[in-house]
Structures are given as C-alpha cells and as structure tokens.
Amino acid sequence: MLLAGDVGGTKTLIGLFDRSERRPNAIAAHGYATNEFPSFTAILDAFARDVHQPFSVTAAAVGVAGPVFGRTAKLTNIAWDISADEVTARFGTERVALLNDLEAMAYSVSVLEGDEVAVLQAGTARPDGNAAVIAAGTGLGQAFLHRVHGKLRPVPSEAGHADFAARTDREIELVRMLRDRYGRAEVEQVLSGPGLLNLHRFTHRGTECPVVDDLLAPEAPARVSQGALTGRCQFCVEALRMFVAAYGAEAGNLALRGVASAGVFVGGGIAPKILPAITNGSFMDAFRAKAPMTELLERIPVIVILNDNAGLLGAAVYAQEMLATA
Ligand SMILES: [Zn+2]
Q1: Which part of the chain has CATH 3.40.367.20?
Q2: How far is the CA of 240 from the centre of ligand 1 (A)?
Q3: Which of 326, 321, 323 shows the shortest CA–CA distance to 151?
Q4: What does the pLDDT look like over 21-55, one tens digit per residue?
Q5: With left for phi above 0 and alpha for psi between -120 and 50, is residue 150 left, alpha or beta?
Q6: What is the pTM of this model?
Q7: 76 CA distance to ligand 1 centroid (A)?
C-alpha cells in the first residue's frame, strides 16, 4: 500500500492508499493535531494504531509545510524536524520522499474531479502551458507546475514569505501597520488565517468588533469571515473584502511569474469557507487587473480546489509515481 502524509503547522493528515490507474484509492485517513505530538514518529505510531489492522507500505510520500532539504524538513512553528528515515524505520520501505506541502498539493491537480473544484474563470487552458497552485490556510503556500517534456512537474517555493505588494492607498497603510508590527510586510501576513486577523486589526483600529473579541482564539479567523459573510460587522466586511482582493491579486502575480497559461489552482482551507466572497467578482477583477497583461490573464483557467484532502491525495499520487518509475 501507499502511505501519504500532509504535515501542517496545525493539522497533520496521514492516509493509506491502494494503487489505481486513474488515481490512488484512499483506504484510510486520520487527522492529528501536529503540536500535540513530540515527534513525527509519534504521529506515525498513532496512525498505525488507528488503522486497527496490519499493513505493509511499498512507497511513502509526505508533504511538509516548510522547506525540504533532501531527506529532512523543518516545520515552521513546530519544535521537531521530520526525516524520511523515520518513515523507513517505522514501516520498512526505502521508497520515502519528503515534499513541500504545496508541491504535494500540485501533484493532485491533474487527478481532481468535477465535484472537487469550483471554476472561477473557465478561460482557455493552453495544453502546452504551465500551471500554478496558491493556497492560503494556516500560512500561504505557492507552487509552480512547469511543463517539462509535455508533463506538468511541480516545483516548490517559499513565496508566502516574499514581500506583500500593495496596490491601493489602503494597502499601503496596511504595509505600514505590518512593518511597524513585524519589521516587514510578508504576503503571508495578509493571506492566511493569521493574515485575516491582521486585516481585522487594521480595519477595526480603535473600534469594538461585535463578532470577534479574542483574536488569539483558534477560531478567530473563521469568526472574522462569518462576521463579514453575515454582514454583522462592517469592519469585518472590509477585512474580508481586502483579503479577497489581495488573494486575487497575488494569484495573478503567481500566474505572471509562472506564465501559468494552463491554469491557476486555488487550494488551502480558507477559499472553500469563504466561497461566496471569492466568487462575487472581486477576486477575479484583482487577478486580471495587470495591464498590459490583462489579455493573458483573461485566458487562464482559475479553479478553486474544494477537496480538503488534496495535499494528501497529491502525496499519494507522488508515492504511486515513485513505484511506476522504480
Ligand atoms: Zn468586526
């Protein structure tokens, strides 16, 4: 069987998959709170217990929210590292790969089905073009899919830590606030759960919010979205409006950087939860507003990934490919 993992700063998913021609077939999947475990091996032990029956692993791939260097990866905000050797030690297989989490998600895009996506712009996908993935969640991830010898090959990045590009006077004010708070304005400090809280701080300056009283609570970003989507707080409405426009603009930046004429995929936990705000037009307006490249951007398919296990599925796709090329 194939073992797949998706290790994030908040949540870790581990799954078992059967090989299957179209795409790996999920047999079992379990989720764990990453910071409640002392090591990655401890999560693998918990998973082996939760599966309730013996299984043998022929290949394993794990997406990790952080940079991967060879057979090790370091998670941002988590005290322990991950090593491919831990998977080998636990399950015996030598075929183990660590991938960046967005790189893993990128392996899923060619096998997603119609009910697992929402189309923001149909466009006209160039069959010889590149693609790209952007995903706001606990952090902001981006990956390129470069067309190499006719096939899309995922390429990781740490683009979430690149600079936030302000476009409006309001965003320039936001950059000032972020620079005062953090020393510089990273795009992830706007486009992520914590980023939505920064937008909340920015739009509520000096005013009470009737929806969110504790910005440190784990559910605070979701409450900001709810306050905005229900119209209960005008400042939450502005925070979400700024979030969606900045998200569309950054997706457009990614499309330009990768010349992603075969499609831009929007993954991560936030987009499906705020879909009414993502589909109301402001995301795509900001995506396209890059004269003189408007025409290029109008032709790019833009697709939201609704399957919240896409990262895990992509890791399984990679594990299956490892066996095919073995
Ligand atoms: Zn509010």
Answers
A1: 116-306
A2: 10
A3: 321
A4: 999 999 999 999 999 999 999 999 999 999 999 99
A5: left
A6: 0.94
A7: 29
